[in-house]
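Cross-check.
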Amino acid sequence: MNTVAKMFARLIIYLLLVISTIQQLWAQVTISTVPLVRHRANNQFTADWLYLSTDLYLYNTNKFDFLINQLRSEQEKQDKKKRKKGKDVDIENLVISINMKALLGRDMIYPIYSFLIKNEKDKASSQISGGYEVVRIIKDLPLQQSTDELSAEIKAEIFGKEDEDKMLKQVSDLLKNAEKLNNPPAAVLSMVAELGNFIESTLNQKQFVYSNTIRLYDETPFNRKLHSINVFQFVPSSLESGSNDNSKLLNALDTLTAENLNRQTLEKILNLSTYPYLVVVNYKSKYLAEQITGDEIDYKYIENRRQKAITRYTSKEIPEEIYQQEMALMDFLVLFVDFKNDIQQYELNYKSKVVDDFSQSFFRIMQRYRFLKNAYAMRLKSYANTPVFSDQYKTEYDKIGFNAEVYLQSNIHLRNIGNLVNTLYMLEHERAMNQDSALREDYLRKLYAVQLPAGESNSEEVRAVNFAISQLENSHLQKEFIPEIKYLDGIKFTGQTNTNAELLIQTIRNTNCQICRDSAALAVNRYLVRKEASLLIQATDSLARRQANWNIRFFFLMKKRNCFQTAFDTQYPADAVLPAHIAHLQKNSERMHTNLLQLEKMLGQSCTTCTSQQIWDFIFETDTRMKTIENEMNTLCDLMPQWCNCN
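Predicted model, tokenized:
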């Protein structure tokens, strides 16, 4: 037997001995507890609302005198034939108890109030004060099972100077049942201690009001909602309680919540004035996950919170479901701290310029962030049907995910890592989504944006990136480039520039798809080779046609030049003094002759290895020279027509 159990056993023996010394002879006088209202709040509770709090509000305490004297009068009438003349009905205590079976899972008729009664010859007075604000008998105590039926029963009894046995038996049963409670020993000891206060008050002829709330988890965060409101009125047993229309009353109670419910509001809504009444208010609570922020989280925080969860689970403060969520969240936070530490180390090295190659740092950060994203995806899948996860813990995961993204915003390299991992995550988890050309290009740009170390090519992360790139590029090639490539391969040249070919060449320059660029470049090269062959034929044919014309034109130019030079030599021998205007003509004639010799040389060139463009350039240059010389010859002949006309 452990220490707590031994202490508990000693307390039971002690309290039973104390009770046996009570010398009053009490006799029960009948009193009825009438349930006026059983109201269930509109709040919905899932299975994780496992904790119970119960408050009691006692009203119209100034009406107890009226009630007691009614009972006293009725008792005297009922016992008139049995009693001796002049014997009064003496009442010493009015005890209000609650049976907490629905709350604690076992019959527990527990005293909440015990009021002393002063007997006089003609009447009795309760001497009850009216300052009882609220009695919280239970605070956030685990329910024995997930139930929505919380209907604690209230019992009021008046004890006189007869029948001690009933009182002793009730207290004895209470102690024995308390020992069998499944709740932690702290709750049991709390109940026993309060029962001791009750007995002590009875022995000392003092009033008693329950004050030692059964609570276990003052430091544990709970969310609390109103569950139900039950109203019990204390009346003489002879009073018939008719059925009342409580619809308006229930509608008014529907306006109450855990936040706005108080003594004054209840009293105003109920508006009962004839007899004393007790209001039992039940609340249900659920465990709230501890709120976290990214900057606060480190390994020490995680370990402290993990140990706190283990302690709470061991002491049955939290159910297994909450415990599992806490452990899963702590594992997730370890991944976040690993990621955060790598970010901070990289930023330190980046600012101090310790190294030039940060590819290994980029890889570690990418790896950590990917671990984090995939762990989150696993949690979503594993706990998809777990209400406590969706109601509470998912928001904590979302906050950590948001904080992780914030850490990746400090420079372009970290943003690229974030874009890479997020893109990879989408491709791995949302493969069925429609991808248009622009989206594939954007994905590829992000996947290629981070320089990863060559030494990690066999790592899971790099293989995943390469696989995603391969899938995207193959899809992009088939949907965007293969049709254009087939079109290029089938083009028949007509001598006109093809717009589609030019557009494909421009697309090659802009695409992020490497295999698309390579495949399209080969197709463009094939296209250009065939295009050049076609253009070469055209240029060669054009050159052949022009050469016959050039030869005829060259012949006549040479003939005119010879006529001009012969006439000049005849009229002006070599030793003759030339007039100025004749000397000028002579210089122009010599320059033209030089150009004719150059043209003659060009006309004699072979172009068997020329490209189409070279041929067209040759044609253009030859035509230009021919026209220039013809113009020069015409100018000379216009000046000296007699020198150009010879046979």
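The radius of gyration is 53 Å. The CA atoms of residues 193 and 214 lie 10 Å apart. Passed to J.P. for a second look.
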